[in-house]
Amino acid sequence: MEENTRAADGLRFGCPDCGGGLRFDIASGRAHCGSCGQSFEMSALPDPSLREADGMMEAVEYRCPQCGAAVHASQTAATSFCSYCGADVILTQRLTRVVRPAAIVPFHVTREKCERIYRERVKESRFAPDDFTAQETVDHFRPVYIPFWRYRGTAEGDGLAGSAVNSYSDGSYEYTKQYQYSLSGSVSVSGIIYDASVSFEDETAQQLRFSVKRAVPFHPGYLCGFYAEAPDTEPSLYAEGVRDYAQKAWEDEFARQCEYKKPKAAFPSDSFAASADILLMPVWLLAHRSGGRVVYTAVNGDTGEIVCDTPVSNRRFGLLAAQLTGLCLMLLVLLHFVIILRPRLLAALCGLTAAVAQWVIARVFRDLRIRRGRENDFTWRKLHPDPRTGKAPKAASLSGRDIKWYIPLLIAGGTALAGMALSAMTAYNFNAFLAGLLADHGWLAPVLQLCALALFAASGYRRRGGPDDLLFLGRLAAMAVTLLAVFMATADIYFYLCCVALLVLTALSLARLNRAHNEYVSRPVPFFGKEEQA
Ligand SMILES: [Zn+2]
Ligand SMILES: [Zn+2]
User: Fold this and answer.
1) How many domains does the chain have?
2) What is the pLDDT along the chain (534 residues), one digit of tens a residue?
3) Which residue, 104, 170, 234, 396, has most beta carbons within 10 Å?
4) Does residue 470 lie in a domain region?
5) Span from the CA of 221 to the centroid of ligand 1 (angstroms)
6) Is the residue at 238 inside a domain?
């Protein structure tokens, strides 16, 4: 009879005093009894999973009926949403056996603190849709332990023997010293971790900057009220990386020992042995449905590091665009009282605007392409080799979310300013110089437009197969025509036409960019079925 209850509920952790249900309490780091209010050190509680000889343990598996994602816990709980596809569903439960992890970094960030970190981050990105901070969204944060392979490795050998020569001179004499050396030693590396779950992206794992410092021996009591993913990669997947790491440590050690010569120390590959065990890392996970896709937020449950890219709401984006346009028009009108912008110069300025926009667009489209193909995900690339070559696809790294849009402006502006300063110095008369600059046949417009076209072409080169190919070609053509017009100094109407064409095409591309950004920060609704496709 007792056996049956256990089969239905998983491992039960009862209070040693009153038998009430225990739950891991993040704030105190102890197991807390809900009935009598006492708390216990986790290590003081008996661990039923230690009785099992095969390194496995019993757990309750929760599976989402919609996307198939599974997590497990040590005992049953009611869960009414999925942290992978964001659906509000009752997860199915069944008893299962999973590999017993060796170590765990327990949660230190409480739910309240996690919510605070999340709200602050969303507030920073002013364009986030309103429902991102709604309480029912925030309530869906779930504490999940992500499995990592934790490696340790050792190598030992007679590194190398040889001779080194050290010569120096004091002005009159040359001294030569010869050294014979024979070095042997060993190197051991430990605490190298690689994420053992395919669904958890490497990029997120890197950004969360996990540390093994607070790892403690595993106890299933940590999973009372918490969830864990099961590892779905083999430790051999990362063996090469661990070997490289050990080789680097070996070489560093020998470089340190040999003062005079930096010998190439042959790494004793044959003696290298590595072993891996499972370490669980704490993550607050949130999946939020937005526009038919899922936006993921992950908070490091140990340090509070957050990975959260919010989409841009169309309404707020449109509002900002209107404000910016108004500001630019106002500036132009004000500028009109000081200097008259001749159409030729105006066209060149429009060209410069289009080029700066292209710089930003190229970066976002490139990152979007990388993320779509998961080219920056080591695990994914290893598991999905190119069907033609049989090799892992080429790695690529993201440009990063901090778009330094001012760099092209600085380059173009700096060039123009340097030219102006040079001319002013040689012309002596500043007013005459300024007038000459802004005149119909001044050289400022062609120089600006040349810079703009160069910048446009340079950033265009970086984008392969962006989602706005036609718009890109249109902008490129408009840039070239503007340059031609500026050099030929044709009738005013052509300049105005160039301005309109450049601005309209750029505005269209920026609207497309908004969609691209929203695709970049979200993922398709996942499916973890048996016939999962790449
Ligand atoms: Zn109790
Ligand atoms: Zn799901």
Assistant:
1) 1
2) 333 334 446 667 788 888 888 889 999 999 998 889 999 998 888 888 888 778 888 889 999 999 989 999 887 777 889 999 998 888 888 888 899 999 999 999 999 999 999 999 998 887 888 889 999 999 999 999 999 999 988 888 775 666 666 677 777 777 776 666 666 778 888 888 998 988 888 888 888 999 999 999 999 889 888 999 999 888 888 888 888 888 888 888 777 776 665 556 677 778 888 889 999 999 999 999 988 899 999 999 999 999 998 888 888 888 888 888 888 888 878 877 777 777 888 888 888 888 888 888 888 888 888 888 778 777 778 778 777 877 777 777 776 555 555 666 676 667 667 766 776 666 666 677 777 777 777 777 888 888 888 888 877 655 555 556 788 888 889 988 988 888 887 788 888 888 889 889 888 888 888 888 888 888 888 887 654 443
3) 104
4) yes
5) 15
6) no
What spacing in Å lies between the alpha carbon of 112 and ligand 1's midpoint?
25
- Ligand 1 centroid to residue 60 C-alpha, Å: 23
- The answer to whether position 352 is within a domain reads yes
Taking the centre of ligand 1 as the mean of its atom positions, its distance from the CA of residue 144, in whole angstroms, is 26
Which ligand does the CA of 33 lie closest to? Answer: 1
Task: Print the domain residue range for 415.
Answer: 342-521
Domain membership of residue 460 (yes or no) is: yes
Alpha carbon 157 to its chain's center: 39
Give the N- to C-terminal CA distance of the chain in Å, as an integer: 46
Q: What is the pTM of this model?
A: 0.80
Residue type, 62: Y
Question: Long-range CB contacts (< 8 A, 24+ apart) of 165-173?
Answer: 165/260, 165/261, 166/260, 166/261
Output the CA 35–ligand 1 centroid distance in Å. 5
Token pair of 172, please? 């009159």
